[in-house]
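User: Structure please.
Assistant: Input sequence and predicted structure:
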Amino acid sequence: MKKYLLSFAVLMSATLFTACNKDNDDHGKVPVIASEGFYVVCSGNMSSGINGSLSYYDNNLKQGYTDAFKTANGKSLGMTANDALRYGDKLYIVVDGEHSVFVTDANTMKLKATIDMTSPTMLGETGGVSPRRITASDGLIYVSTYGGFVAAIDTLNYSLKQKYKTGSYPEGIAVSNGYLYVANSDYGNGNASISKINLATGADTPITNDNIRNPQTIAIAGTDIYYLDYGQYGPAPTYAQENAGVYRITGSVVTKVVPDATGMGASGYYIYTFNAPYGGNSTTYSIFNIQTGTLSSFTPADIESPAAIEVDPVTGNVMIASYHLVTSEWGTYADYSSNGYVNIYDSTLSTKKATFECGVGPTRIVMNVGLHYYEY
């Protein structure tokens, strides 16, 4: 059975079929899915009082912009930017410390609206606290919050259409085949689960397993669930991170498909990962092919301390965000209070195509992919 994490090929075929169906006209416009660039969500640093920011890289100009949101709007995102999503012609930015989702124009990044997740008409002060991750489907955006809910929000008037109760401390979410999947991390306290919520009825069938310890990111391929799990942290003095990896759920069977991973990006048949565990002293990188079940490794050039990874579904380019390393009398460590950077590699990961400076605390890379019409 063929499995897809992102069905861009299907969308391409549908739009091209529509383009060919014209009435006796020798000239027209062909709709093509194009990759304009990508956004980098930078969380900032709460302990140092550094606000979050949004960086951007323009594929056409081959130019990076370190603080694109502030440049466009004259103000920062606020504390702890956490996730973002381009959906239609808008970019939605999730900011944990502001309990808000900022809605901007996807191209100009001008602010269009602010959704206060703690407002009485949304999830309230308790339910809407600390929004975490976002996805979208059928004209709705879905936002998880540490209040233990996922809100389904209309993209036209930003009203709450539905709210779904989840497990403890939900993180990553995905929507597929009428179900909402939620990674309930329980903040690593030992009662994690993955919710499978029927969107029509709201009924939750939670999935629990000894291998579901601290799930963070979810991708759906057919009927299989893939999730990145942070594992758990060992005893003092190192508190070394253990059992982090990518797992697959098929029916009731949970299988570890990438033994060591603390970061994950998925596109097509492939899951790209890096492993930079807390308390570890080495970093590894892997590619898992979900169709063949094979795992391979790669070593990207010029990455000091990886923080996020993503794949361009159109070009196949791989983007890896990194912290800079600093050395002091206490040793060498990642600099969490200074700007990071992003390297862009070709699809073979053998060539670094570009690099640019991003904001403090890069945490998520989000593609700016949209439908464009070309005359012929």
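The chain has a mean pLDDT of 91.
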